[in-house]
Write a structure and sequence with these properties.
Helix content: 25-40%
Shape: globular
Bound molecules: pyridoxal-5'-phosphate
Number of strands: 15
Distance between the termini: 46 Å
CATH architecture of one domain: 3-Layer(aba) Sandwich
CATH superfamily of one domain: Type I PLP-dependent aspartate aminotransferase-like (Major domain)
Strand order of the largest sheet: 4-10-9-8-7-5-6
Order of helices and strands: EEEHHHEHEHEHEHEEEHHEEHEEEH
CATH class of one domain: Alpha Beta
Strand content: 15-25%
Length: 374
């Protein structure tokens, strides 16, 4: 059997990882400013994380949601405490970002009894049924995923949103910071407009914080920079630092019912042990503060480089737009052993490092970057 060939791959494998670094099979050491696609939040192979998962595996690794799983409650409590404002929400656990968003849309539809969802240009919400339809990329929407239930509106366009909003809309889904779309920042007033229109028409505001959440923006959720509160917030990526786990947190006014949502693997013991360790480390090591501090430093310094067309983002989710982005990214990887992410359609390099990156690691990148672009 061979692998179904759907991924363009870097020309190496990784055999070791620690903190902000990964090593390939030839012993080359890379500074990881990609974090396996924004997934590595607390750093690779953090000792407390490794121990928590190992200890849990030695007790019980998995049982389905048919028995009491107290560590789910521990996770909900620790996650709630980290969110700074969402302590009274409840948590539904699943396994990935797409699944989290799928459940968010489903819940909005169940709750309102409505079918229509508003999504935005340049959005990415995942590759499964309703969420791929809400993703602004026709090339990944299969005929079976096509639906007239999704209405697209230009991102950050309040007037256009106002025109389509009505009492048929179940929910509005928007990324805290658009990731695949090239790190596009929603304006404060755009998010506040979504909030007020959802309130006016009885729709739910759904924040997709799968990439921009979990402290990456310098606040726990990126939309907290805009002083709004959502009804449902989806998360995944940084939540398990690589262990597959996702979830949605749900406002108290949305009532659960047995059987309404469900999953076999979601919230299993091992995944919860990983996610609890992530919460502990974010808190103990003050990683949100570090994300804000090092992220701001990176953005300020990057803005001084004249070859760069634009620098966008919050904290450690940074988009660097430049004409020859592909070349620069390749040179960073091959000549300087620095991994970065990309949003090809937006000519943008994406920086998504672990949240414990140090200022000296940031300086190492800035020096290499200046050398490559000049
Ligand atoms: C904003 C956003 N939403 C949803 C997803 C889908 O997550 P997953 O790949 O875990 O299904 C992603 C993945 O890149 C994402 O960036």
């Amino acid at each position: 059997m061979t692998l179904f060939d759907v991924y363009p791959l870097f020309p190496f494998e990784l055999t070791k990882a620690e903190g902000c670094y990964v090593w390939d099979e030839n012993g080359n050491k890379y500074l990881d400013l990609y974090g396996g696609h924004a997934v590595i939040s607390i750093g690779h192979t953090h000792p407390h994380y490794v121990k928590s998962i190992t200890d849990q595996l030695n007790k019980i690794g998995f049982y389905s949601n048919s028995v009491q799983i107290p560590i789910q409650k521990e996770l909900a409590q620790k996650l709630g405490a980290l969110t700074g404002g969402y302590e009274d929400y409840s948590l539904f656990l699943c396994n990935s970002g797409a699944e989290a968003n799928e459940n968010a849309l489903k819940l909005a539809s169940f709750h309102t009894g409505r079918k229509k969802i508003i999504a935005f240009s340049k959005s990415f919400h995942g590759r499964t049924s309703a969420v791929v339809a809400a993703t602004d990329d026709k090339s990944i929407i299969a005929p079976v995923n096509e639906t007239s239930n999704i209405i697209f509106v230009p991102f950050n366009d309040e007037a256009a949103l106002e025109v389509v909003m009505n009492d048929q809309i179940a929910g509005v889904i928007v990324e805290g910071l658009q990731g695949v779309g090239g790190v596009q920042v929603p304006t404060d007033s755009f998010l506040q407009k979504i909030r007020s229109l959802c309130d006016k028409f009885g729709a739910l505001m759904i924040m997709d914080e799968i990439q921009s959440g979990y402290g990456r923006s310098g606040k726990f959720f990126s939309h907290q920079h805009s002083n709004v509160k959502a009804d449902i917030i989806s998360m995944a990526k940084g939540m398990g630092n690589g262990f597959p786990i996702g979830g949605i947190i749900i406002a108290p006014h949305i009532e659960p019912k047995h059987g309404m949502l469900g999953t076999t693997f979601g919230g299993n013991h091992l995944a919860c042990a990983a996610a609890i360790a992530v919460c502990d480390i974010i808190k103990q090591e003050n990683l949100m503060h570090n994300a804000a501090e090092v992220g701001t430093y990176l953005m300020v310094e990057l803005k001084k480089i004249s070859a760069i067309k634009d620098v966008r983002g919050y904290g450690l989710m940074i988009g660097v737009e430049l004409d020859n982005y592909a070349d620069v990214r390749k040179k960073l990887m091959i000549d300087h052993k620095i991994l970065t992410g990309v949003s090809g359609k937006q000519n943008t390099i994406r920086l998504l490092p672990p949240l414990n990156i140090t200022k000296s690691e940031a300086d190492h990148f800035l020096k290499a970057f200046a050398e490559v672009v000049n």
